[in-house]
Structures are given as C-alpha cells and as structure tokens.
Design brief:
It catalyses: 5-phospho-beta-D-ribosylamine + L-glutamate + diphosphate = 5-phospho-alpha-D-ribose 1-diphosphate + L-glutamine + H2O. Catalyzes the formation of phosphoribosylamine from phosphoribosylpyrophosphate (PRPP) and glutamine. With about 475 residues, the protein is α+β, with helices and mostly antiparallel strands. It folds into 2 domains: about 240 residues, Glutamine Phosphoribosylpyrophosphate, subunit 1, domain 1; about 170 residues, 3-Layer(aba) Sandwich (Rossmann fold), CATH 3.40.50.2020. The chain has a 7-stranded antiparallel β-sheet with strand order 3-2-4-1-10-9-11. A 6-stranded antiparallel β-sheet has the order 5-6-7-8-12-13, with helices on one face.
Length: about 475
C-alpha cells in the first residue's frame, strides 16, 4: 500500500458495540475494541455509553479528532458510565475531517436518546438529505451517517419500537453500511443487504459484542459467534439476542478490498481468513507472472502475506527487505515532493545485506499513483539489487468506489492514463504484473464479490 497519505487508498471506518451485564462498565471494552480496529480509520474516534438501569436519557459520550489512545485518557474513560455502548474509528469518505463529523452521533429527540456509528457510504444521501431539509430538518454534520440517524429518529416517532424504526430506515437507504445503534435499553447491529461492509457477533461471559472485524472480538476476550447476515438486523437486550432477516436477499456483493487490504490479517470475514486469502492472492500472482529471481519481498505491512503466497507457490525464498519505523507520526509533514520522498525513507529503510546482488520480486497490495513504489524500487537498486520485478496483489484501479473505499480521482490513478508498459517504465521496474480480475475469486472461493473499482460492474444503481 502506498505510504504517501496524499495518494493512498484510505481505510474505511470501524464500529464496535457491546451490551454487558448490569454494573459492568462498557467503555473500557469499547476502548480496546477500537484499538483493534484502529487500522480502519485514524482521523477521529468516539464512544457513547448508557446505563440500562438508569433513567432513559442518561447517555454520555466523548469524541474528537485523533487516534484512540490520544482521544481517550484514563480519566475520560472513567467518566463514561454504563453497561451498553458503541464506538467508532473514522476515516472520512463522506464529509470532511472535522470534530463535528466524529462519531458516534448522539441524538436527543422526542422518544429519548439514540447513538449511531456507521461504516460505509450511501448512494442516495443527497436525495434523502434534501427531502428531510425540505421538511424542516437541520443537520449539524456533513456526513451520510447523520442522514441515517435522522431517518431512524423520524421513523421512531411513528413506530412501536426502535427496531421497527431501523427496519423502515434500512428499507429507504441504499448503499453500503454496517451500523451499531444504541438506544437506552438496546444494542442493534445492521448490515447492508449486499453484505458490502463486514459485521460480526461475539460473546463473552458477561456480554454480547458487535464489531466490524473479528479481531476486535479477540481484543475484549469475546468468542466469535457468527457474521451478521447481509440485510440482517440483530437486537441485543437484557433478555438476549434476536434476529430479523426479513430484509435479507439472495444477491450479495462483498467488498474484495477487505480481503486485499482493509481487514487485519488475524480477522475472519464471512468465513474467510484474511491471511489465507492474501496467501492465495500471492499464489495466483506467481502462477500468472512467473519470473526468475532470488528472493520475494513484500512492502510492509499489507504486501507481506501476498509476498509469502508468491514465495510458496513459486519456490523462490521469502525474505524481509525493509525495516519499518513504527514510530513515525501520522502527522509527518510533507509539503513538497522531495520531502514526501524523504518520508518514505524514514518510514521504510532497505536492509542492504538482504538485497545486495539479488534479483527481487517486490509484492505490494496496490499501486495508486506509483510514487511510493518507484521510490522503493530506487532504494532497492541503490542498495545493490540487480533487478526488481513488481507484482501487485490487485488489478489496476480504473473506476470510482461509491461504497466507502476512498479511491482517489481518476487523474491521480496511474492506471487510468498509462498502459502496463508505461507504468513499468515510470516506476523503474524490470517487469510488472497486476492481479488478473478473473483470479480474484481464487482468494475467497465462491463468495460473491464487488470488484467495481477494478471492473466498473457496480452491484446496484448508483444514480
């Protein structure tokens, strides 16, 4: 994955919800769950909690710009009391990066309080927002998440339960979404009918948990139960867990980029191990683009598993060619191209004895503009590599994503304006091979996929 923030594919958001037994503080578990989901968004985060035995307006929250361990200090966590709560880590795909757009969103309305956290992107946001504004709604953020929250609140006024209001809302919104919603006495999880966004359920002795990825369940010592079905609405109360599958449908389209890049290596999504999917992706690259080489190396961190898969399938030894500096801050300032190139060298440095005199296969998960991969190739050759053969564990990006993957505009995508040979020449590689679109299913078996950012085949009407 490209390391220059000006041109990389951005992470999505991560959501976490927990309903614990009475007297248990939910906030610490949400904190650890969000830390496990930090890879999905680093711009802002937040937690909202409620005491199910207290008065119905007692929801408290805290959110701000920054990483989880920056926003939440010990005294802040200790001020959030309640056994029911939700949390969110955010990268802004709709709406700018400002504190007002941080989540969870907490609404006070005629039926009480409601908190909502959202991963994904709607395709009919403008239509819904315009309808609500024409009927007097005032929005405080620029996110589609507030449109969802407002719709739930409006429907709740005319519904017998919050679940009914959520079901009516789910029938109106179109796009990709994983939701956790907290009312004063209930935790609700919702997944879009296509299954574009992941969502799973876990349980530990004193609690039920809903999270974007299974790695967050492990972080709070919860046992994975199952994935939320596409279109399913799951409600957790003091009486246990209930499921509504009336909005489920046969057509599914799971985001392939979860398996290529987004999800953590130790997560399972819809029965598929992320690690094993990337190993299989690397093997498919080896079969499609063999080359004579001495070692296979990956770009840390997201290219490493695919590199291992390429190595195993090709028989070429796997090696670690880069040292990654984990202590470089995310706010590292790079106002000029020269300084951006220096930033790459600060974050990654070549281990010279590994590469000197070697023919190298360099595996990365994607190429966006090509700036970073070109710098890495230059660094490898400067360190004595004889040749560098680049293998990319995804097809070229050619189309925008409308569902929450923040693919840069076409003028920033090198594959939109250059053919394969031009890209190879531009980045200085001795050879170049992208994952073939027809090989993507080999990563995930028979799981139905959305690959629209590669092939332009969107699973719904995006107008």
């Amino acid at each position: 994955m490209e390391l220059d923030p000006s041109c990389e594919i951005k992470e999505e958001c991560g959501i976490f919800g927990i309903f614990a037994k009475e007297g248990t503080e939910a906030a610490p578990s949400i904190y650890y769950g969000l830390c496990a989901l930090q890879h999905r968004g680093q711009e802002s985060c937040g937690i909202a909690v409620s005491d199910t035995t207290g008065p119905k307006g007692n929801m408290s929250s805290h959110k701000d710009l920054g990483l989880v361990n920056e926003v939440f200090k010990e005294e802040t966590l200790h001020s959030l009391h309640g056994n029911l709560g939700i949390g969110h880590v955010r990268y802004s795909t709709t709406g700018g990066n400002s504190a007002s757009n941080a989540q969870p969103l907490v609404l006070n309305y005629v039926k009480g309080t409601l908190a909502l956290a959202h991963n994904g992107n709607l395709v009919n946001t403008e239509e819904l927002r315009r309808e609500f504004e024409e009927n007097g709604a005032i929005f405080h953020t620029t996110t589609d998440s507030e449109v969802i929250a407002y719709c739930v609140a409006r429907e709740r006024v005319h519904s017998t339960s919050v679940e009914e209001a959520i079901k009516k809302t789910a029938a109106k919104i179109r796009g990709a979404y994983g939701l956790v919603i907290a009312s004063p006495r209930k935790l609700v999880g919702v997944r879009d009918p296509l299954g574009l966004k992941p969502l799973c359920i876990g349980k530990r002795e004193d609690a039920y948990v809903i999270a974007s990825e299974s790695c967050a369940l492990s972080a709070v010592d919860a046992e994975f139960i199952r994935d939320v079905l596409p279109g399913e609405i799951v409600t957790i109360t003091s009486e246990g867990i209930k499921s509504d599958t009336s909005l489920c449908q046969e057509k599914h389209a799971h985001c392939i980029f979860e398996y290529i890049y987004f999800a953590r290596l130790d997560s399972h999504l819809d029965g598929i191990s992320t690690y094993e999917a990337r190993i299989r992706g690397g093997a498919a690259l080896a079969a499609a683009y063999p080359v004579e080489a001495d070692i296979v190396v990956g770009v840390p961190d997201s290219g490493l598993a695919a590199a291992k898969g390429y190595s195993e399938a090709s028989g070429i030894p796997f090696a670690l060619a880069f040292h990654k500096n984990s202590y470089v801050g995310r706010t590292f300032i790079k106002p000029t191209q020269k300084e951006r190139e220096s930033a790459v060298r600060v974050k990654l440095n070549v281990i010279e004895p590994v590469v000197r005199g070697k023919r190298i296969v360099l595996v990365d998960d994607s190429i966006v503009r090509g700036t970073t991969i070109a710098n890495l190739i230059h660094m490898l050759k400067k360190a004595g590599a004889l040749s560098v053969h680049v293998r990319v564990a995804s097809p070229p990006f050619l189309h925008p994503c409308y569902f929450g993957t923040d693919v840069p505009s076409n003028d920033q995508l090198i594959a939109c304006s250059h053919n394969l040979e031009e890209i190879r020449d531009s980045i200085g590689a001795d050879s170049l091979g992208y994952m073939k679109i027809e090989d993507l299913p080999s990563m995930v078996g028979d799981l139905p996929l959305c690959c629209a950012c590669f092939d332009g085949n969107y699973p719904m009407n995006i107008q």
